[in-house]
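Section 3.1: Structural characterization of target chains.
Under the original work plan, the team committed to producing a structural model for every single-chain target entering the pipeline before any wet-lab resources were allocated. The record below documents one such target. The sequence was received from the expression subgroup and is listed exactly as submitted; it comprises 332 residues.
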Amino acid sequence: MKATIDGRECEIRAVWFEDGRVRMIDQRQLPARIVIVDFDDHLDIAEAIRNMTTRGAPSIGATAAYGMCMAALNGCDLERAASDLKAARPTANDLFYAVDHMVEALGDGADPVEAADGYAQMMVDKCTMIGEYGAELISDGMRIMTHCNAGALATVDVGTALAPMRRAWAQGKRFFVYASETRPRLQGMQLTAWELNQEGIDHAIIPDGASAYYMSQGVDMIITGADRIAENGDFANKIGTFDKAIVAKHLGIPFYVAAPVSTFDFDTGTGEDIVIEQRSEEEVTMVGDTRIAPVGSKALNPAFDVTPAELVTAFITEMGILRPDEIHRVRQ
């Protein structure tokens, strides 16, 4: 992804391995500043996943792969390390997919760094293909809506939902993006808008509650990412996605989900079987050290919701664009 660091434009990834350490962008610090943090212990990497130093399903997966890499380099028990990393967050399937991938690779004698680097690059390559397929759906003059952050920050590089936009913009197509702020952590406002700024893509941030209004005024397409996709096509994504899908169905707006095959979980039958992460009240009630909610009022803070497959127009994957009833084609 493009980023301006110390006044210089450069290319950077969300997470990588360098000089014996795992390095990543601390996404909690964006957009105010770019901070790179280093880790040399898999338990600290698990905590970085848990506290959302790194986030986004494919980036979580790559980070977990590097966590297994560090566990192997440090001579840790790999079964225990796999359990530690899988416990970091419950909803994103890529976390489990990546850990299992590394357990198999390390069990076959692979070099830990090469295996983790290979996994991260595999995610980038998949996202590149998502961009190629998805860009075909975008035309000049379109108004596109997205939710949360499914860009390079969430996917090591390139993105899922943002990949088609990046590719279409590079092809010379010009369009406008509505980026909903995405409560409670404001990842759409803070991260997606930051990425769109870096790419020079025309956009505006809108309050989550204004999404239906702008959709009624004319939105041509909605593209989101996903954290887990069940066998029947139901999918979990950041809280507020379900709302948009319902309104899109009512208004006849195509609703696309961009995700690599690693996000599909064919061991999960339907959306009802997806574990929804519940995060702390303070993410809702506090801004910094200041409480903004009345004392005594509790907050409920689910990180995700589940959108039924019937509301999805198609899934944009590295294997092509598939209707919900076609996703069995990506089964591995």
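The chain has two domains: 2-125, 131-330.
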